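cron nightly-structures :: item 1 of 1
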Amino acid sequence: MDDKIIATFCLCDDLLKAMHHQEDHQCQMNDAEIMTTAFIASLFFRGQHESARAMLKQQGYIPHMLSKSRFNRRLHRIKELFIILFNLLGKTWKTLNTDAIYVIDSLPIAVCDNIRIRRSKIYSDENFRGYQASKKRYFYGLKIHLMVTQDGQPVECFLTYGGFGDVDALKYYAYELPDGSIIYADKAYNDYEIEDLLKDVDHIHLLPMRKKNSKRALSPSISFVQSYYRKRVETAGSLIEQLLPKSIHAVTSQGFELKVALFVVAASLNCYLNI
């Protein structure tokens, strides 16, 4: 853990310096320390910031730790920095992914158990009720829409409400990929119009697994390759799920969404630290 704490701080500090990030030097904690604390909470403490704060202070890594309320305010204030870091890591993975093979999928994140939906104080709209086909069960919360490399490193990601259709998510990926890139996906992502648009305009080949009645049946060899690479996104999803607690504690929807996003960025950061 010690090596990852130091490496995480150095990465965050270097990023902020490269951005010429401005902050008040009289602050008790700098933004790199705030980011490091949030990442350590996601990587080692199931998102419990209080536990990460206590450990980092007791071990002398950040002796001037902020109070809980001040830390949370600062964390929300710098949330855009986590997006910048995720995108920077994503560009790194794209550069290393010389075969230009990617996979997309979604991961459900429940805000509460189904029996507690009516008592949820974070969300109240029926749009947040989604269905997880792989486990044949409903959930209430958010979806993480994820694009990963063939080795499982996240390169693009965004959050939607749980009932948001996977095929609709195709319209919201940035697709900042090299010409000739191949994207594999499951049967939920069949949209011929978007497939043609990506191929004609961006020279990107979207190859979802076909349904039985599909007018664009794929050869058995391509179907085999699809199944192989599908395991990559499942691996990436499991890396995120391994970090998640049984339930994510949050008081507001903004706090819940920030914690979910931190788990995704932390998973990408962990891939980088493990190189």
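cron nightly-structures :: done
The mean pLDDT is 93.
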